[in-house]
Protein: ABC transporter permease subunit
Organism: Undibacterium curvum
Amino acid sequence: MNVYRWFGRAWLSVGYLFLYIPILMLIVFSFNSSRQDMIWSGFTLNWYSALTKDQEIISGFMLSLKIALLAASASVILGTFAAFSLNNYRKFSGRALFKGMVSSPLVMPEVIIGLSLLLMFVSFEKMFGFPQRGMFTILFGHTVLGMAYATVVIESRLQEMSKSLSEAAMDLGCKPFQVFTLVTLPNITQALASAWLLTFTLSLDDVVLSAFLTGPGYSTMPIIIFSRARLGLDPRVNVIATLTILAVSIGVIFSSWQIVRAERLRQKQISAAFQADTSK
């Protein structure tokens, strides 16, 4: 058994090294004074100061951040409604078609999704003069993709949730909307946060859909990085990646702390309520 345990640990360590060594190399070489990544010439912060003067990168980052925030929020809202409908209403006309349409972006290549949305928007623009390709079209595409992921995450949590809670609330006189807001939403808060973080990340680093749906003057940060990477190595790309990793790490740590804190508070409330009932 010890052999299998050590083999499992070694295999797990190799997997972690394979995943995280490139990220660590990227962070280290963001402080390299040379433009060539694989040649260390000394420590410098010049590339960080140069990034603050790069207006193209800054505008692309702000556009990507704005789209990611809106797309994540819209995906979670629409995904919550879709998951609630699929979980609570087992039989309604067109349920199989609806479930298939919601889940199709998960298995369909992004190239196909981007091309189909591009053709749709071009047709609409010819017929109605709207929408022109830009922030709205990118946001729409990211929301279509993010909604599918959000629905899966939220639906899995709803399936684990006991229906007796909702039934008890309705027996006490709550209306369906009150049951949803007072019982269902508080119990799926962690799933909502997980779905929001997942869709935010998918939107922030998406290249394929953005490349199909972007227009003149609307280049997101991943598109700018991809276009510069094709022209040669740029240390400012390493700086962007380092800052992104730092921001994501802080966000994950903070959200994890909030989730653990909320779970502990909920467990304390449950134990206090149980002790109060037993004392009676």
The mean pLDDT is 84.
